[in-house]
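Design request, tokens follow.
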């Protein structure tokens, strides 16, 4: 007979649902967060702590942190024992030890032990079992009130949805006769913890754990609707920002390392931004596996953690190692490989990748609908983004002195580079270069990055006729008592080189033959350049760098430019450089002397160098047809956060792979199967749909229950490529892409916010 049990733990404080270390990726059952004494064995599968061998003074110890018993005067534990018996509990605190106990049976029970108030609790020892054998704990809580146990008479009906597309959620319709759940004995608050257990056998499974968020009393039936979201809400309600770690800018990091930082420093951090939270989230990452390869740059400024992890899984799709994630009812985050159809393997995760019960017509399939369609299919993705080189802002000038070089040095001049942390415009370091000629006042030369001359930048592919890319940089010099004489025909320049013989040059400071306004700094002669002052320059570059001024913007139009073509600052090219192959960038400076000084020397500082520009990437399905859809189906996305080109390409590829196939988005209803998990592969046999032991992917599991019966609905897909399979095609999906728990649809958001330059030239990315 199907089993049901539900309870609300009221005013929850410090607690442990998983018994796993929060800051560890070790999935071993023997690695637990609780201390175990000599002679005691203890393991956790992420949901249940099993221990044995306890004796007087020896057992397993929970350290809930310094907790005031006046605020949390109840210890609530759900437990059972293989052989029954009594279990002693010792609560160590600022006063005399509280010695408590409870009597166990072979079935699960919830125990609430009152604590002496006015104490500061430090640790709790569970030990000295009266009968040998395994003792099992489902959770341990310190609470401000006793729990509410919901009987089958209380519950009129309910549902639990377990999903990887958003957080789990539950809804219960309760009998609220005469305001039962508003009386002091049964009233509950927002943020209380709801646990639901369902099972098709003698013992129910833990199918739901989450926080209560909604109460709705109704008449005339005198009922109450309560809704809750699962513990995965922790990832959706916390944002990624630059406290307390260096995140949200991750450089050359693996998805595993990024996720670890997201959980440790942005979700579980009980003192985030210096604001303490006593009852903060407790998401374990013991089951976060290494998925995908190193990501050169990942930025996640003020996105919530859920969306950040989802983006990382999208990148894993582009890398060819698709992963999926979900948070279980015991507050464990699982990150596992998606796996090919019929070959799923979740490695060290305790949950099997393949569900153990097959679904079959005439056996347990009650009803099913298995539609396949191409309504959402797109085989050409136009991805508009902002490309930034280097991907991490300032990376060219942060402790890179050994990677800088010099050229065209005035005879007798030397160039010495160093990393300077004392004179900085942005970041932690600037590049300092001292040009010195000990035998003459005439000194100068080119200072450039990188010395290896291997940038390989395609400036032509950045921006457009009306929106050229920008070279964004800081410059500073101290000329002091030098002659400050500008050489005619050899003024300071900004240069972009294909190689040593082929370069573009921009007039940085005008010489005596050139008007001041034809220089980037707007001055004539280096004697008019201010010493010890940081110049911040945004220089339009490339074949369309002359677009300096636009007309006054007009709503919903593209402003026409006054001038197009090369920049007025651009000098005659040296050789035959190519904007599609720029290998190094530099600043040339020369003081021709002539004032009688015996020598010449000046320090220069370079900081915050980057090139930014719009990027239009067209990722298209380059497979043969079939399986490629024969006709053109296009969509666009707009990404407002600057990224390096590798990341932009990977996001475009991930979107294409998500959309380019016709997919199954179906459902199958069975009698209650409480042990199914989202993202498991389920074996289906139904001749009418031409499935014979065919593996499908369970994107969501929905349990519905009432006194009339209990059913389970499997939301199924045959998409084994993407971390985000498309949901059923409904109008609500357009308005709210992945259900009520997700951000607005990408298409709707992009339509409202995108400012697209129609003259962008798409960079083609064929995808096999």
């Amino acid at each position: 007979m199907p089993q049901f049990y539900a309870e609300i733990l009221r005013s929850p404080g410090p607690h442990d649902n998983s018994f796993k270390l929060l800051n560890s990726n070790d999935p071993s059952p023997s690695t637990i967060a609780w201390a175990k004494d000599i002679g005691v064995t203890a393991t956790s599968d992420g949901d249940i702590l099993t221990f044995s061998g306890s004796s007087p003074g020896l057992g397993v110890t929970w350290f809930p942190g310094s907790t005031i018993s006046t605020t949390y005067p109840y210890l609530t534990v759900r437990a059972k024992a293989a052989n029954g018996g009594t279990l002693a509990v010792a609560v160590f605190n600022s006063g005399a030890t509280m010695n408590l106990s409870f009597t166990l049976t072979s079935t699960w029970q919830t125990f609430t032990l009152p604590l002496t108030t006015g104490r500061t609790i430090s640790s709790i020892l569970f030990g000295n079992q009266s009968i040998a054998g395994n003792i099992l704990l489902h959770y341990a809580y310190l609470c401000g009130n006793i729990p509410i146990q919901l009987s089958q008479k209380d519950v009129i009906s309910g549902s639990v949805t377990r999903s990887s597309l958003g957080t789990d959620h539950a809804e219960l319709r309760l009998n609220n006769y005469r305001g039962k759940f508003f009386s002091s004995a049964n009233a509950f608050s927002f943020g209380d913890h709801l646990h639901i257990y369902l099972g098709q056998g003698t013992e129910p499974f833990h199918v739901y754990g989450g926080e209560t968020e909604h109460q709705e009393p109704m008449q005339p039936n005198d009922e109450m609707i309560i809704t809750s979201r699962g513990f995965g809400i922790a990832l959706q309600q916390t944002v990624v920002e630059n406290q307390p770690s260096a995140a949200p800018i991750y450089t050359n990091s693996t998805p595993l390392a990024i996720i670890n930082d997201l959980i440790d420093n942005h979700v579980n951090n009980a003192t985030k931004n210096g604001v303490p939270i006593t009852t903060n989230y407790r998401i374990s990452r013991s089951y976060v596996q290494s998925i995908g390869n190193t990501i050169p740059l990942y930025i996640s400024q003020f996105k919530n953690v859920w969306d950040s992890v989802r983006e990382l899984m999208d990148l894993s799709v582009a890398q060819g190692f698709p992963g999926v994630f979900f948070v279980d009812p015991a507050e464990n985050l699982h990150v596992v490989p998606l796996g090919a159809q019929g070959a799923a393997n979740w490695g060290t995760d305790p949950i099997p990748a393949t569900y153990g019960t097959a679904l079959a017509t005439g056996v347990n399939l009650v009803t099913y609908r298995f539609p396949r369609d191409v309504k959402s299919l797109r085989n050409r993705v136009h991805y508009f983004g902002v490309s930034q080189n280097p991907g991490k802002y300032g990376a060219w000038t942060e402790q890179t002195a050994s990677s800088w070089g010099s050229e065209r040095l005035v005879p007798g001049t030397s160039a010495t580079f160093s990393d300077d942390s004392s004179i900085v415009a942005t970041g932690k370091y600037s590049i300092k270069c001292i040009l010195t000629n000990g035998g003459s006042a005439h000194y100068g030369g080119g200072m450039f990055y990188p010395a290896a001359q291997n940038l390989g930048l395609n400036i032509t592919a950045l921006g457009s006729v009306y929106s050229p890319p920008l070279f964004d940089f800081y410059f500073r010099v101290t000329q002091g008592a030098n002659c400050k004489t500008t050489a005619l025909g050899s003024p300071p320049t900004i240069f972009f080189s294909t190689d040593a013989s082929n370069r573009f040059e921009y007039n940085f400071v005008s010489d005596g033959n050139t008007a001041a306004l034809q220089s980037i700094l707007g001055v004539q002669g280096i004697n008019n350049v201010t010493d010890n002052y940081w110049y911040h320059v945004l220089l339009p570059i490339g074949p369309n760098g002359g677009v300096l001024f636009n007309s006054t913007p007009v709503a919903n139009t593209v402003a026409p430019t006054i001038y197009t073509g090369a920049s007025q600052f651009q000098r005659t090219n040296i050789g035959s450089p190519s904007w599609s192959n720029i290998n190094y960038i530099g600043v040339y400076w020369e003081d021709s002397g002539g004032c009688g000084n015996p020598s010449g020397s000046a320090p220069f500082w370079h900081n915050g160098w980057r090139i930014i520009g719009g990027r239009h990437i067209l990722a298209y399905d380059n497979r043969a047809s079939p399986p490629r859809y024969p006709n053109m189906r296009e969509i666009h996305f707009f990404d407002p956060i600057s990224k390096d080109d590798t990341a932009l390409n990977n996001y475009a590829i991930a979107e294409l792979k998500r959309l380019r196939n016709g997919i199954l988005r179906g459902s199958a209803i069975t009698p209650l199967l409480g042990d199914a998990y989202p993202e498991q592969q389920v074996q289906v046999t139904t001749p009418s749909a031409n499935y014979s032991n065919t593996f499908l992917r369970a994107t969501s599991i929905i349990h519905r229950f009432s006194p009339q019966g209990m059913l389970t609905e499997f939301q199924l897909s045959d998409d084994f490529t993407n971390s985000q399979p498309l949901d059923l095609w409904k109008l609500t999906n357009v308005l709210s892409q992945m259900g009520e728990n997700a951000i607005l649809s990408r298409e709707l958001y992009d339509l409202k916010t995108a400012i697209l330059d129609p003259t962008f030239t798409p960079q083609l990315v064929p995808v096999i």
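Comment from the thread starter after seeing the answer: thanks! Confidence is low (pLDDT under 50) at residues 549-554, 557-562, 727-755.
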